[in-house]
Amino acid sequence: MTCHDRRAVRRGRIRSAAALGCLLTLLATACTGGPRDAEEAGREQAAEGPIVVASGLDVTGSGSVRQQLIEEWNRLHAGSRTRQAKLVELPGGADQQRSQLLGALQSGSARYDVVNLDITWIPEFAEAGLISPLPEAGTGAAADDDRDFIREVHATTVWKGRSYARPFNTDVGLLYYRPDLLTKADIEADKQPTANWTWDQLYSSVKTLGLNPVRRDERAGWTTQLKQYEGLTVNTVEAFADAGVELADSEGRYSSGAGELKKGLDRLLDRIERGRVQPAALTSDETASLTDFVEGRAVFLRHWPYAYGALGGRMDPAAYAVNRLPGKAVLGGQNLAVTADSRRGDDARELITFLTSRESERCLLDAGFAATRASVYGSAAQPCWPRVAAALRPAGDSPEAAATGEGGLEEQGANARATYIRILGAALTEAVQRPRTPYYGAFTQVLQSHVHALLAAERPDTAEAADELDDALRDVFAGR
Q1: CA separation for the pair 210, 221 (Å, rounded)
Q2: How far apart are CA 408 and CA 291, in angstroms?
Q3: Which pLDDT tens digit goes with each residue over 297-307?
Q4: Which of the four pLDDT bands, split at 50, 70 and 90, describes residue 400?
Q5: In terms of pLDDT, which residue wins out, 5 or 176?
Q6: Sorting pLDDT into bands at 50, 70 and 90, what band is 38?
Q7: pLDDT, tens only, 61-114
Q8: What interhelical angle do 358-367 and 65-76 show, nearest 10?
Q9: CA dist list (Å): 269 to 64, 274, 441
Q10: How far apart are CA 352 and CA 344, in angstroms?
């Protein structure tokens, strides 16, 4: 056989082997003989791994109810290795988590199937094509299930007419107060906070108490979170909403002006001055403001629902109470979305449905979060998954408490707990949203910078501050 003949035979064998390889893989993938094969193989391998959920840290101190819900899902799907799920908790504050998620999804450096997004991030992630819109619920059981979510809470999942997520846990501003301190000042029970309490009544109580703090160690009328971070944005938007000021429409277009902004800034300063705010509030976050309240340096406190459980471990049950925040309260919380490049879209959506089910939402409420479903706040609510309830129950709780799904938040007794749930449910139905815009990160930084400078000024000029803020916000909402 000549060299030419041998080469022809080798070429024939190579062509036959290539043809056979293509034939064997034709049903699974296109046979190109190039990098696409490795990419496709990687996709198939990834589809066999766990469904990965990326989330921020659990702030409730509940023993990680999110992790417990993931474990319950895994138990229910123990017979399927490909249906198991894994929770990845991202470190740092909200801004750091947002940056991590944006970087990971834009670069493809982390394989997340589900992301737990702050409600203010939905427009940004949707506009960037990083999360997938959910299928339309249509009619029937799916539509009925969607209607069980509190209307304003569900609205946080929508951008430009499409829903991109399902509400996981929500949040709303509440008013905590010290009935023991009010009673000592002869403020009678019938004049203490009720469901329809107003800021003027709070100011009246502060005046009766004779409070006028100058130093941080002096007792103040109230405290909140006015440090230059998202807490300041929330407090500002609440004051603006109470003054009838809306910063943007549903499509993210700027809808205010200098005159309107001045009204909102005046309302915020009014709360600080007439409410005799704790001087430390200008540098306080959630942790610091809660500590000031616990240690008696403020009679009233604006905080989130998880503080109800936190106070149970730090104060005598008779020394604190909670009610709706006077005026408007801002929504917080997180929504679960499927990433646009997830190779497990169907499984991811099924997992999200489980994590936001009536039973799971009850678990979240028992753990200290605010639930997103209206039915959870009713008398016929579904109980928490039994094994999750048992895992969340602190040592020493009775088995009867776990059986009723009450978790570990019974420090004030069943009646107080029921009242708290009723108050929380009512507050959520009337809460307001922060501006809906894909430029939310830039918006909140600009608002914080201008407002904090105004609060720190010796002689704050709200007219001048409003003019400057108006110019800045016009640029921000236009994406400039």
Answers
A1: 9
A2: 21
A3: 999 999 999 99
A4: very low
A5: 176
A6: very low
A7: 656 899 999 999 999 999 888 899 999 999 888 888 999 999 999 998 889 999
A8: 150
A9: 38, 8, 24
A10: 12
List pLDDT tens digits, range 184-239.
887 876 667 877 789 999 999 999 999 989 899 999 999 999 999 999 999 999 99
Domains delineated in the chain: 51-171+332-429 (3.40.190.10), 174-331+435-477 (3.40.190.10)
Which residue do the tokens 């129950």 mark?
393
Q: Which of 384, 363, 348 is nearest to 66 (CA)?
A: 363
Residue 192 to residue 185: CA distance in whole angstroms: 11
